[in-house]
Amino acid sequence: MTTGPTGYTGDLTPQQAWDLLAQDERAVLVDVRTRAEWQYVGVPEATATGRSTGFVEWVQYPSGEPNPHFVSELQALGLAPGDGRPVVFLCRSGVRSVAAARAATAAGLGPAYNVLEGFEGDVGPDGHRGHQGWRAVGLPWAQR
User: Hey, CA dihedral for 129, 94, 75, 68, is it positive or negative?
Assistant: First the structure.
């Protein structure tokens, strides 16, 4: 596995992430936001690519503490060190997913990718999120 100077394989736009998931049957999408975000904001749907989305918190809700079981929970999704399965990490705006991609790479998982802009992007000029990211470009998602 090749990693760049960032400590993980690289960044993908939401569309590039979708294309990778659609083209590589081994690729896995992992949402690393919190349970509250999954429930109240919505979740990406990869089912149109023939795969489901994995959900593993990077930080635990409501404590905000790092998830000490992050790597073992990734492995519970069927990922194994050295298996070469692409892992596409997504969070709210593309910050936690960078940390997740680095941790996965350090554990020998991946190649690991970060989705730029995440699920809903940064806060826009109007003070709200949702102008960027997975949802804004029209990729499949659902409200739980």
Answer: negative
Q: Domain 10-142 class?
A: alpha beta
pLDDT band for 79, please (50, 70, 90 cuts).
Answer: very high
Q: For residue 27, how many C-alpha atoms fall within 13 Å in the half-sphere facing its CB?
A: 19
Q: Which residues make Cβ contacts (< 8 Å) with residue 47, sequence separation at least 6? A: 140
The residue extents of the domains of the chain are 10-142
Determine if the pTM surpasses 0.90. Answer: yes
For tokens 């399965």, the residue is: 85
Burial class of residue 142 (count of CB atoms within 10 Å of its CB; 0-12, 13-18, 19+): exposed
